[in-house]
Amino acid sequence: MFLGHFGLGFAGKRLAPRMSLGSLFLAVQFADLVFWILTLVGAEHFRVSPGATRVTPMDFFDYPWSHSLAALAVWAAIVGAIYWIGRDSLAGGLVLAAGVLSHWFLDVIVHRRDMPLGFHGPYFGLQLWRSLPWTIAAEAVVFGAGLAMYLSATRARDRIGVWALWGLVVFLAAAWLASALGPPPGSERAVQWIGLAMWVFVPWGWWIDRHRVLAKDRAAR
Ligand SMILES: [Zn+2]
Known about the structure:
This protein is mainly alpha-helical. Helices cover 67% and strands 10% of the residues. It contains 10 helices and 6 strands, in the order ααββαααββαβαααβα. The chain has helices spanning 3-15, 21-40, 64-67, 69-87, 90-110, 132-153, 159-181, 188-196, 201-210, 215-220, and strands spanning 45-48, 58-62, 115-118, 121-124, 154-156, 212-214. A hairpin with a 2-residue loop joins strand 3 and strand 4 (121-124). Helix 1 runs antiparallel to helix 2 (21-40) and helix 2 packs antiparallel against helix 9. The longest helix has 23 residues, at 159-181. The N and C termini lie far apart (39 Å). Residues 31-32, 67, 103, 107 line the site of zinc ion.
């Protein structure tokens, strides 16, 4: 899943209003952010395999450190603990930990049976990627619902608060549609660098949030 993860990141603002959208994006995307680094250093593996699924031509066959539920539970505890100690907010730490774990459950909906529970399986996957229309519907619903929650929880402080947000929304949707509808990528290397570039959404989320205020603060003024 791609857009759906960001949907949950947006929705997290409802649970942890004081937390930056950048931190929330880091949590929900954590598995993928780590995965692309690990593939670049050769610790995890995937291959471009046209026809692997209707939606994505990617065959993810070795990613226990980034995508097993067991590993994500450890990452969730680490990320949550860092926030808890650093910001003195247990509630915030729990929200981030839940965000890291959420990645597994959203990915299970769309992936083939390749999502490991432990390091060496068993493997799960509801295979929504077999259907393009259903995948688009699922991504759109989760992303749209999360975005709606973020929009109701915050108000733009200035014009950047509007354009940085909608720029991100359009960019994410266009990038995802292009990958789902376009031809398969030419090489694993190309995919890895694009994947690595996804780190940009962490500072982008932080930037959006700096230019928006909580709706309830605005109303109180
Ligand atoms: Zn993933």
